[in-house]
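Ticket #329: bound-state structure for 2ZS.
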Amino acid sequence: QTGSANTNPSDSADDEYITSVSIGTPAQVLPLDFDTGSSDLWVFSSETPKSSASGHVTYSPSKSSTAKKLSGSTWSIEYGDKSSSSGDVYTDVVTIGGFSVKTQAVESATKVSTQFVQDTVISGLVGLGFDIGNQVSPRPQKTWFSNAASSLAEPLFTADLRHQETGSYNFGFIDTSLAKGTIGYTPADGSEGYWGFTATGYSVGGAQLNRNSITGIADTGTTLLLLPDNIVDAYYNNVESAEYDDSQEGVVFDCSEDLPSFSFGVGGQTITISGDLLNLTPIEEGSSTCFGGLQSSADIGINIFGDVALKAALVVFDLGNERLGWAQK
Ligand SMILES: CSC[C@H](NC(=O)[C@H](Cc1ccccc1)NC(=O)N1CCOCC1)C(=O)N[C@@H](CC1CCCCC1)[C@@H](O)C(=O)OC(C)C
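RESOLUTION: The complex was predicted; output attached.
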């Protein structure tokens, strides 16, 4: 068995990617953000304060004949960008890309932080990290993918995120036609809950890769490519107008700049992110100053290969073999 779901950028900056998920009987369809950086499936619901839920699609367990309260269970989560949510837990049927998990823990939000209230294009997250990262207590719950894995043709899923066009999350199979290059595999470290790996080197503007390894995570829920300051500086030294903008909290440059590409080595392959993908967006509608897709990871303490990097590749999240596969797109 397999599953295949389309995913779409939320806005002109590809800030996040939205995938439709069916929950309950009859199906309630919610737009959710698939996040390999976390391990909880949570949704705006009939239990979310009306003022917070305004503008969001919500899940009502009382309207689903297959919903069951997981009594005594609660959850609370905080993300890297300091956004947070918490609540209680139901189980219900959850269908993604035509594949159904009958008894999935669906975490219902009774509290959501301001960022979620304002982000009306999504109604919650589907965590695709490792089960160890799940935040339900007293008994942590499995992710949708973990529950699905044993029934899927292969215990893996792929992410094919695209700039300003429809991409896909495929479950249980690899559509190699989505990639130009060969898939290079490297061990994945799931001990922290997310998909950790080590890139073997990097280069700017098509030069030969150096051998400076970068340890980080493959995170579909993070917009940017976040790397150490020395790499960020090496890149922007090639961009005449680049400067750090305090108000934007990142490096900006003239939108007219012809940005160099950025490449990294992984699993014996080289993934090259084109200059175009490294120009995220004008800092304001119509501005001629643009915000960089590559920014510093210094304040976070972890390097993150987020959507800016993932858009250059077909990425295989191979749970069965505890490995990550990367192929140039
Ligand atoms: C340094 S980690 C920052 C990361 N957040 C982000 O990358 C958010 C995602 C977002 C987009 C649109 C609207 C709202 C939020 N984007 C962001 O901070 N941006 C500021 C810079 O310009 C680009 C957009 C993050 O917290 N990722 C979460 C999932 C994320 C999904 C969207 C809702 C908020 C939570 C998760 O992947 C995570 O915490 O990873 C850990 C392991 C770092």
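RESOLUTION NOTES: The CA atoms of residues 113 and 317 lie 29 Å apart.
TICKET STATUS: resolved
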